[in-house]
Design goal:
- By secondary structure, the protein is of the alpha+beta class.
- 52% of the residues lie in helices and 23% in strands.
- It contains 3 helices and 10 strands; from the N terminus they run H-H-E-E-H-E-E-E-E-E-E-E-E.
- The chain has a 4-stranded antiparallel beta sheet, covered by helices on one side.
- Strand 8 and strand 9 form a beta hairpin.
- Helix 1 runs antiparallel to helix 2 and helix 2 packs across helix 3.
- The longest helix has 114 residues.
- The protein is rod-shaped and about 180 Å long.
């Protein structure tokens, strides 16, 4: 039995396996390889049939002798075609199975992503609520601290007002005290600065700040006693007449100030000073005197 090559079903060259979006690259390559194998097998069959037809045309007389051989060849071709169809069917089944597995894997991944996303949202929501709670507590603390600060500010304002009043009063008293002070001539015949006769007047002079003031309370001793940048040695006192005698040591030079009275500026010069230093004794007692030393702010003036 002769079979014409045209009687065999011809594979449709436009046929393509079903495609779906999102297929992996290896899947597409695998399908193309299957089609290449199928195409090679089909070409092989056509070549065999063509050779058989040429042989029939050239040796028509020998057709009967070779019928069995042709039948075998047809059987082989038929088996090959069926095997090819079975292979294609198996490949389609594998493709379908693989597609199902991919869909299942995709659904599983999507489910896991959604679950983790939900967990993250719940965690972030809880953290935001906790943060809002902390911020609310801090705001309340700030409000409380602001109230306390305003209360303290009011108290401080009252204190500042009181201090201003005290300062004004003290300033008035200072001005009154300074106005009562007098400037007299010292024992060197130089007009002295203002002379303080007691502690309050001396405090007023210190606030005025025109000179440096060093208070002293010295007794009659064998050794001179240092006061400021000079030294003094008390020699004698006369409590009845409020008089005293003392030695002044300045610039390694001794000057005797004999029989001076209280509140009298005892004057002497030191190196680089254009105006004299002044010693004012406010109190005379037995073998003891108390008062202050006044020196210029600027030694060179």
């Amino acid at each position: 039995m002769s079979i014409s090559p045209g009687s065999l079903p011809t594979p449709d060259p436009t046929w393509r396996p079903e495609t779906s979006e999102g297929r992996p690259k290896w899947f597409t390559i695998f399908i193309l390889a299957c089609f290449v194998v199928l195409f090679v097998l089909t070409g092989y069959m056509f070549v065999q049939l063509r050779a058989a037809r040429a042989s029939l045309d050239q040796a028509n007389a020998k057709i009967q002798a070779h019928e069995e051989q042709i039948a075998k060849l047809e059987g082989s071709v038929s088996r090959t075609y069926k095997e090819a169809e079975q292979g294609i069917s198996a490949l389609r089944g594998e493709v379908t199975s693989t597609r199902g597995q991919i869909n299942q894997a995709t659904q599983k991944v999507a489910s896991e992503v959604l679950s983790k996303t939900q967990q993250n949202i719940e965690r972030m929501t809880a953290e935001q609520k906790a943060a809002l709670g902390r911020v609310g507590g801090e705001v309340e603390q700030l409000k409380s601290a602001t109230g306390e600060a305003q209360s303290k500010l009011g108290s401080l304002t009252g204190e500042v007002t009181g201090v201003k009043t005290d300062v004004s009063s003290t300033k008035a008293e200072l001005q009154k005290t300074i106005a009562e002070l007098k400037s007299v001539r010292g024992d060197l015949g130089v007009q002295s600065g203002l002379v303080a006769t007691n502690a309050s007047e001396l405090a007023a002079l210190k606030r005025l700040g025109e000179r440096n003031y060093f208070e002293f309370n010295i007794k009659k001793t064998k050794q001179p006693q240092k006061v400021g940048n000079i030294a003094m040695k008390l020699r004698s006192t006369d409590t009845k007449r409020n008089r005293f005698t003392l030695d002044v040591i300045a610039d390694d030079k001794l000057t005797e100030k004999k029989d001076r009275t209280i509140n009298e500026p005892v004057q002497f010069y030191v190196a680089k000073a254009k105006i004299p230093y002044e010693i004012v004794v406010n109190q005379v007692s037995k073998d003891q005197i108390a008062g202050y030393l006044a020196t210029p702010k600027d030694q060179g003036r």
